[in-house]
């Protein structure tokens, strides 16, 4: 009988590639340069990401920039916040259709999403409750593929049909995620289960809070902060892992459900959508191992131990710090922490103290990383650093942290899928250079 541990060692030996080979053949590991800049693989109208703000060749600001359909994310957020509106539906319309909706168009779009917030008859019982899992992302992928079995036009990839399917998935993703958690929480953990059907007039953030809570109650600040998290996670260029997965799978000509299931699998990874869970776990470990969270020297010592692989998960990473593109600042994090602070203030002194601890780590970690590591660009907190803390304040279980990311990013995936179908008729197929030595075949008896 084969010893799998031994065979795994064989795989490690036979599949190992020396790092020098990548430099020798000028192959970009992770399709990125040393400074984090991605290898150019395509064009898009949907969003723009820059590590700093430029005017031609001149640097206007060293801080990062994010634009949705050409509109600076700060202007976009300030627009709907100034009128005390929630922005998920408005920004979804912008990303899907390329322009901001009029008042009537926004009202019609909100109604459309609200009315589509429904699942096939007995779907919750037969699919979601049938085999619950602690991994809600897997449940979502399974549910998405199963929805394809209910669709008579699953394989129709006309733009009209893909748009129709995309709108339905945007509307039902919150239901699939929250109901999957409730099923797991009941059947596996033995807690009470409640399946609330949200009012179709609610925004997406409000619908999530309604479905999640036994009493369906929430404050405006809670809804606004969750809405802000969804807006800021909604889209981030065509080069992030799950969106590129969407592009690659779309280019093969496959259906919407298979494409989105693949994107969910990508987002599930701890190096992508699962990073916010790591941040909250790291912060809990910090509080358990630092006697005085007001003492910055103690906090600094703990962070140095993390980098030395002596603390937390021994991986040498301060989670929530740094980004593949941004250097001096992640504009999403800069916006988000304003609403994190508002929510913490509403929640009381304990949450405010926790927020202050996050701010200390946010300030100290880049200094320590820069002192102890060779960095090719600046280091700053990314949006994942704060999002887990927000979800904790909203009483979201950790099992739903990454699904919240998916509920937002399904909009960006849908926009990129449609753009790929309209513009590119070739399957995406990069090349890998073989570096093994040629060998001759040996007869079985001579091996």
Q: What is the β-strand count?
A: 5
Uncertain spans: none
> How would a textbook summarize the main sheet?
3 strands, antiparallel
What structural class do helix, strand and pairing data support?
mainly alpha
Helicity level, as a percent range?
Answer: 55-70%
Strand % is: under 5%
| N-end to C-end Cα span | 18 Å
SSE order, one letter for each helix or strand: HHEEEEEHHHHHHHHHHHHHHHH
Strand line-up in the sheet with most strands: 1-4-5
Mean pLDDT: 92
- What's the shape? globular
Family: Belongs to the citrate synthase family.
Organism: Enterococcus hulanensis
InterPro entries: Citrate_synth-like_lrg_a-sub, Citrate_synth-like_sm_a-sub, Citrate_synthase, Citrate_synthase_bac-typ, Citrate_synthase_sf
Catalytic activity: oxaloacetate + acetyl-CoA + H2O = citrate + CoA + H(+)
Write structural notes for this entry.
- The chain is mostly helical and 447 residues long.
- It has 18 helices and five strands.
- Helix 7 (136-149) crosses helix 8 (159-187), helix 10 runs antiparallel to helix 15 and helix 14 packs across helix 16.
- The longest helix has 29 residues, at 159-187.
- Belongs to the citrate synthase family.
Summary?
This is Citrate synthase. This protein has 447 residues and is mainly alpha-helical.
What's the arrangement of secondary structure elements?
Elements: H1 4-15, H2 19-24, E1 47-50, E2 53-55, E3 58-61, E4 65-68, E5 71-72, H3 73-82, H4 88-97, H5 103-115, H6 123-128, H7 136-149, H8 159-187, H9 204-212, H10 220-233, H11 241-251, H12 256-267, H13 275-289, H14 296-307, H15 331-347, H16 349-372, H17 384-393, H18 401-423
Antiparallel strand pairs: 1-4, 2-3, 4-5
Helix pairs in contact: 4-18, 5-8, 7-8, 7-12, 8-9, 8-18, 9-10, 10-15, 10-18, 11-12, 11-18, 12-18, 13-17, 14-16, 15-16, 15-17, 16-17
């Amino acid at each position: 009988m084969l010893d799998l541990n031994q065979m795994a060692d064989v795989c490690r030996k036979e599949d190992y590639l020396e790092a020098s080979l990548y430099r020798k053949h000028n192959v970009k590991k992770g399709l990125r340069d040393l400074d984090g800049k991605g290898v150019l693989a395509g064009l898009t109208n949907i969003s723009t990401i820059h590590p700093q703000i430029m005017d031609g060749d001149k640097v206007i600001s060293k801080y990062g920039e994010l634009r949705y359909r050409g509109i600076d994310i700060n202007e976009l957020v300030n627009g709907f916040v100034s009128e005390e509106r929630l922005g998920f539906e408005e920004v979804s319309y912008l990303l899907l259709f390329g322009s901001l909706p009029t008042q009537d168009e926004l009202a019609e779009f909100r109604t459309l999403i609200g009315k589509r917030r429904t699942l096939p008859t007995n779907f919750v019982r037969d699919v979601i409750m049938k085999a619950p899992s602690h991994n809600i992302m897997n449940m979502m992928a399974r549910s998405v593929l199963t929805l394809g079995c209910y669709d008579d036009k699953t394989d129709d990839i006309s733009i009209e049909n893909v748009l129709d399917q995309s709108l339905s998935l945007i509307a039902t993703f919150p239901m699939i995620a929250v109901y999957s958690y409730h099923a797991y929480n009941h059947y596996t953990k033995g807690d009470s289960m409640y399946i609330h059907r949200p009012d179709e007039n609610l925004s997406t953030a409000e619908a999530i809070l309604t479905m999640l809570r036994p009493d369906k109650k929430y404050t405006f600040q809670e809804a606004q902060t969750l809405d802000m998290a969804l807006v800021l996670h909604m889209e981030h260029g065509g080069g992030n892992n799950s969106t590129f997965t969407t592009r690659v799978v779309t280019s093969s000509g496959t259906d919407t459900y298979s494409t989105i299931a693949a994107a969910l699998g990508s987002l599930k990874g701890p190096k992508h959508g699962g990073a916010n869970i790591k941040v909250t776990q790291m912060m809990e470990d910090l509080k358990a191992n630092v006697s005085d969270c007001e003492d910055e020297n103690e906090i600094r010592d703990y962070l140095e131990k993390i980098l030395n692989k002596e603390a937390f998960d021994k991986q040498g990473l301060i989670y929530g710090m740094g980004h593949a593109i941004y250097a001096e600042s992640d504009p999403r994090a800069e916006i988000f922490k304003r609403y994190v602070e508002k929510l913490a203030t509403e929640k009381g002194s304990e949450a405010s103290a926790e927020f202050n601890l996050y701010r200390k780590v946010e300030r100290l970690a880049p200094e320590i990383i820069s002192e102890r590591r060779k960095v090719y660009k600046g280091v700053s907190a990314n949006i994942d650093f704060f999002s887990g803390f927000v979800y904790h304040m909203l009483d979201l279980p950790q099992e739903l942290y990454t699904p919240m990311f998916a509920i937002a990013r399904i909009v960006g995936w849908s926009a990129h899928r449609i753009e790929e179908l309209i513009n590119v008729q070739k399957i995406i197929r990069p090349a890998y250079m073989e570096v093994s030595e040629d060998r001759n075949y040996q007869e079985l008896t001579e091996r």
